[in-house]
Design a protein that fits this description.
Blueprint: E1 2-6, H1 15-27, E2 31-36, E3 43-45, E4 48-52, H2 60-78, E5 82-85, H3 91-99, E6 103-108, H4 112-116, H5 127-142, E7 147-150, H6 153-159, E8 166-168, H7 175-178, E9 190-194, H8 203-209, E10 216-220, H9 228-233, E11 241-245, H10 249-258, E12 261-264, H11 278-285, E13 290-293, H12 296-305, E14 308-311, H13 316-327, H14 330-347, H15 350-364
Parallel strand pairs: 1-2, 1-5, 2-4, 5-6, 6-7, 7-8, 9-10, 9-12, 10-11, 12-13, 13-14
Antiparallel strand pairs: 3-4
């Protein structure tokens, strides 16, 4: 079966799309191509063919029109059995591909209507209207696709009444990348934050907490808001930041191996309170205790595993106090880190999620007539 994954917005080696889903399907024996729009050319890696339709140019509107059209044309020309798309802006193209007789899988990474409510570039008064309009369109479209893949059970449950073939494929870590036998004594008095950096992901309270601690922050990821990095650099806590930029997977593993605490203090926006952020499970897999936002879904995970502390993510003093509590009790911190590691080994790894993805694709294969 020939499978073509489509993305107009993500990088070609995106962890969920390429490293996990495409490579897993290729390893299972499927013919897998990933269509991207980055201008970096053709590539074959991990058994996956990467087809580039050319770099995006212009702003969001250009990407959502001209780039989407190029991706649609490329997908149609590849004559796949199944198209698996990853960006909501590709919905119109996916509907046309479905009309052309191609099976379509929609991969929902985020609860987009709730995410729109936190988009800083949309005027405040317009956000509820935009979110409501998109939700109606998305709900109508998903009933026409062959399967829906979601990043969390919460998002899956939203779609089940409209498409019974909805499956949660969670963004759990690949253990071979991150699980290292790193001695606690070899770790530094450093905490880490990995991933996209923005205000609603809690960067300002983290920086504000640092002067009240005796640690440094390993900060790795893409700054997603114009001017935010410069604003944070003017804060007193910035003197305690190791600004590492965007790292490859080996770089991420190195940071996880040397840090003592992982921070995942996202703000309580509608899109985050029911999310399962990959960084939480990567910290756990790396054997470090976590300091996480006190959301019900996250509390259930952290309390069940006994792997960290929960705080008000908007309170710098609470974050600083949690860092101090763990740094002041090394044995407790070490035990929490090991408990998190064991929980990931038992329940939160990509291996089981990859098997669910392959099983879904087996159901999409055409029946073979007996000879």
């Amino acid at each position: 079966m020939k499978i073509v994954h489509l993305t107009s917005a993500h990088p070609r080696h995106d962890i969920r799309i390429f490293v996990k889903e495409c490579a897993t399907l290729a390893d299972a024996g499927f013919d897998v191509t990933l269509v991207v729009a980055d201008g970096l050319g053709e590539e074959i890696k991990s058994g996956v063919r990467i087809h580039d339709v050319g770099a995006k140019s212009g702003g969001r509107l250009a990407r959502m029109t001209a780039t989407v059209k190029r991706i649609y044309v490329a997908a149609l020309a590849l004559q796949p059995d199944v198209v698996h798309f990853h960006d909501p802006e590709l919905l119109p193209a996916a509907l046309r591909l479905k009309q052309a007789g191609i099976k379509v899988v929609y991969d929902v990474h985020e609860d987009m209507p709730r995410q729109i409510l936190g988009k800083h570039w949309i005027p405040d008064r317009a956000r509820p209207l935009v979110a409501g309009g998109f939700e109606r369109i998305e709900d109508w479209a998903v009933s026409r696709f062959d399967a829906i893949v979601t990043s969390t059970p919460h998002i899956r449950d939203r779609f089940l009444s409209r498409n019974a073939n909805s499956v949660a494929i969670c963004n759990f870590p690949i253990l071979s990348e991150l699980v290292r036998d790193t001695a606690w004594e070899s770790r530094r008095n450093e905490v880490c934050y990995l991933g996209s950096i923005s205000r609603i992901r809690g960067i300002a309270p983290i920086i504000a907490a640092l002067p009240d601690t005796h640690v440094r922050l390993n900060l790795a990821g893409l700054w997603s808001e114009a001017g935010l990095q410069q604003s944070m650099q003017r804060e007193p806590g910035w003197a305690r930041v190791n600004d590492l930029g965007v790292l490859d997977r080996q770089g991420v593993a190195a940071v996880l191996a040397k840090s003592k605490i992982g921070l995942v203090t996202l703000f309580p926006t509608p899109n985050y309170v029911d999310a399962l952020p990959i960084k939480l499970f990567e910290y756990m897999a790396a054997g470090m205790p976590v300091i996480a936002s006190d959301f019900p879904v996250w509390r259930a995970i952290v309390d069940d595993a006994g792997c960290g502390l929960l705080v008000d993510p908007q309170d710098p003093q609470a974050i600083a106090a949690a860092i101090g509590e763990l740094m002041g009790d090394e044995e407790r911190a070490r035990a929490m880190g090991e408990a998190g590691r064991q929980a990931v080994l038992a329940k939160y790894s990509w291996a089981a999620e990859g098997e669910k993805l392959v099983a879904l694709y087996r159901t999409l294969q055409p029946a073979v007539s007996p000879q």
